[in-house]
Amino acid sequence: MHGFFTEATNSTAQKLAAQYSKSLIEASLDPLITINREGKITDMNEALVHITGVSRNELTGSNFFDYFTDKHKAQKVYQQVFQNNAIEDYPLTLRHKDGKLTDVLFNGSVYKDNLGKVQGVVIVARNTGGQKWALDLQNANKELAYQNDEKEKRAAELVIANQELAFQNEEKEKRANELIIANKELLFQNQEKEKRASELVIANKELAFQNDEKEKRAAELVIANKELAFQNNEKEKRADELIIANEELIFQNLEKEKRAAELVIANKELAFQNDEKEKRANELIIANKELIFQNQEKEKREIVNKELKELNYTTKLDSQYTLSLIEASRDPLVTINTKGKITDMNEALVNSTGKTREELTGSDFFDYFTEQQKAREVYQEVFEKGCVADSPLTLRHKDGKLTDVLFNGSVYKNEVGNVQGVVIVARDITDQKRIATELIEARVFAELATEIAEEAKRRAERATITAENAVKAKQQFLSNMSHEIRTPMNAIIGFTKVVLKTDLTLKQKEYLDAIKMSGDALIVLINDILDLAKVDSGKMTFEKTPFKLNSSVAAMLHLFEPKIQEKNLKLIKEYDPQIPQVLIGDPVRLHQIILNLVSNAVKFTSKGKITVSVNLIHEDVETVIIEFAVTDTGIGIPEDRMGKIFENFQQASSRTSRLYGGTGLGLAIVKQLIEPQGGTIRVQSTVGTGSTFSFTLSFQKTTSDAEMGNEFIELDTEIKNIKILVVEDIPLNQLLMKTLLDDFGFERDIAENGKIAIEKLKEKEYDVILMDLQMPEMNGFETTEYIRHTLKSQIPIIALTADVTTVDLAKCKAVGMNDYLAKPVDDRLLYSKIIGLLKKTSLNAIHIESVNEEEITLKKEKYINLAYLKQRAKSNPVLMEEMINLYLTQTPAIIKTIKESLANKNWHLVSAAAHKMIPSFAIVGISPVFENIAKQIQETATVLDKTEEIEALVQQLEEVCAQACSELEEELNKIKNTIK
Ligand code: ADP
């Protein structure tokens, strides 16, 4: 080493510098080596010694490459230094001789001599071991920290990622669930949609259906109307059916009787057959006896003539003959010994039992019967009694078939008289039994059929009752309603009339006319509806009252005068003078008919005339037939509608109602009023020319006088100071009456009911009473009765009635009313009736007064009062005599009948006789108190256990009648004197 450095540092300064350099090199921790061109180590520092573990000496001259792990590489690096003059930081690894390795960074450069010739290479191998390790450690730490950080980050990221994952899983699940729900929702919505769609279809159908329904309802309404008509028809049909059902019942009863008769015949037949059978049995018994006898004979012969075989042969033939007879019988025949074993039989038994003869012979006889014990008893009976007849038993065939038989048996004996056994004939009665059963069945069937028919009848009756009740309810409703409507309507019309009479402007009059017309139309409609209901319920009844036809028609036509004048028409009445003055019929209904026809004629005619003609077309002793015709020159009726107009709610054309009003009920009612009375209605019409409505009605003729009428007496103003009592409860009607009567210049008082009226009558004198019928406290009928019988007053009474068509005019008459007026009251008619009645009474007054004077002299407690009779007979003494005579002959006869029937306890007759008597009380003016006795008898007689009561009443009645009769006889004498 020193060689190299020595050469370099030849001078001292140089020496010092070289030493310094050398110490620096030695101090370096990095190995420093110089190598010659051959690769041999020429010099080194301590660091190389240290790293290789090889001494300086050994190292010097040694092969540089040997100390590296990779010699080849080291060699290459060394060569590279020579080529490139230097190398920097080339990594190589030095090996210690102990094996320890040191990583170095190989930095080399060539060194040259002064001449610049390359001497060798100087190498510094920087030991990277310590540095690198620390660095590595540091780096490793950093790396670790970094990696830890990274790891933590990763962990955190992992946690986050996991959370995210978890979250995403949850989300996914949620989504999945949502998806499921969404799917379900979708499904549901689809279903909903489908439902909606089908609902829509249904709704559409429903809509269509409802439209249909609506149309149907409309159609039903039409049908309902028809139904109403139909139900009426049905009702009639029911009635017809009832009749048929009754006929059916009668027929079935007849059938039953026939069956019963057949049964009787069958029974007789049975009895006859039994007789026949008995005869047969008897014959058989006789035959048996004969047989037995012959057997006995045979046996006898056998005993006596055992040797006589020929004779035996004959006997055998005989027995064969008998046997063949027995065999021929169709009834089972059998012989049994004393032990009950079969000894012989015929073919019939073989057939009935199905056993062979061999099986039967010696077998137990009783085995072949269904009731063995009974068979045994019968058999024993035969032994006890010697015989038994017609004991019923049943034989059983081995196949189970049964044969009903009548068992006839008798004992047979041997020749010495010892009982050998029993011979039995069982008669087959299967057929008879069958016939008997059939007959019983037939009878049961007949009875059943009767029951069914009766049930059907009951049902039909119930149905009829239900239908009738429904109709009744309807009619009641209509009648109530129309009554309620009528009262205020009457007031409206009445007051309109009153106002119309005051001073009015033209316009006001026009308006009021319109109100009145509407009111009149409404009243007509209400009456029509009520009538229709009555027709429907079959309640339309017809009076038979004497009335004056001529004045009745005249009064009706009077009512149309204002209308006729207003329309500038002419009204012509043609009345046949041959018609009897007084006829019996229903004037109210006739009034209604003519009113309807004339009002139609007026309504549908705008110019020309209306002719009402009344003609007698037939007359005999008792009746007349009269034709009424209403002819107009109006619009006429098209031919095709003429058949229709008599139906409910039918008009000639749909325009009719608009142009002329009306409901199409009038003619229907007219028809219903005519036809039930036996009349007919016809129409002839030409459109544009006019129409004729004509009808015929028959009336009875009479010699008696008309009771009440619509006579229209010409107004006579001579009678003055007239005092009227109005008995009326409704304030509106009171006011109306007041106004009308004030207008006439009459004095008038008002009583709210019958009781008040009676009080007023006692205090003051009146000329006429106007009496409402329906009133609280005391109605019009009761009041009139009281006035006539208790007050014994003959003051003229006019009934005021809202319902002319239903009012019981007969009742008005019976209680003693003189006339009636329909509401709304026609003022002219009212005036004429009041005046007419006053005229009549003033005429009669002279007679009555004279009689009254005579009556005053009579005893006060007189039973009779002839005022009524006088009035009825118009004080005609002959008529009165006739009537009193009638009473005198009739009354004692009735009393006698009552007493006799009472003794016989014939209550029905008692009641009927008392009833018959009632009208006569009023005729001869006997007080209603006594009339009530007769009424009481009539009612009580139908009640059981009232015998004593009735006896007392009858006695009272007898006394009253006896007294009345004696009084009447006195009167009769007086009257007879006046006739003379
Ligand atoms: P309303 O008169 O209330 O309509 P009706 O039953 O009285 O009912 O008459 C039925 C129909 O007959 C009338 O609507 C009308 O068309 C016809 N008719 C009745 N009478 C006459 C007549 N005298 N002239 C013309 N048409 C008539």
From TrEMBL:
Keyword Kinase among UniProt keywords? yes
Check the record and name the Pfam families matching this protein: HATPase_c, HisKA, PAS, PAS_9, Response_reg
Q: Which residues carry this modification: 4-aspartylphosphate?
A: D772
Q: Where in the cell is it found?
A: Membrane
Q: What is its main location?
A: membrane
What PROSITE patterns does UniProt report for this protein, alphabetically?
HIS_KIN, HPT, PAC, PAS, RESPONSE_REGULATORY
What domain of life does the native source organism fall in? Bacteria
Give every PAS domain span.
Answer: 17-90, 318-372
Q: Which GO terms describe its cellular component?
A: plasma membrane
* Broad EC category: transferase
Q: Does the keyword Ribosomal protein apply?
A: no
Single GO MF descriptor: ATP binding
* Location of the HPt domain: 876-975
Entry's EC annotation: 2.7.13.3
Q: What residues does the PAC domain cover?
A: 389-441
Residue positions of the PTM Phosphohistidine? H915
Histidine kinase domain ranges (all copies): 480-701
Which reactions fall under this protein's catalytic activity? Answer: ATP + protein L-histidine = ADP + protein N-phospho-L-histidine
Q: Which residues form a coiled coil?
A: 134-173, 244-271, 446-473
Instruction: Check the record and name the SMART domains matching this protein.
Output: HATPase_c, HisKA, PAC, PAS, REC
Residues covered by the Response regulatory domain = 723-838
List keywords of the entry alphabetically: ATP-binding, Coiled coil, Kinase, Membrane, Nucleotide-binding, Phosphoprotein, Transferase, Transmembrane, Transmembrane helix
- Protein's recorded name: histidine kinase
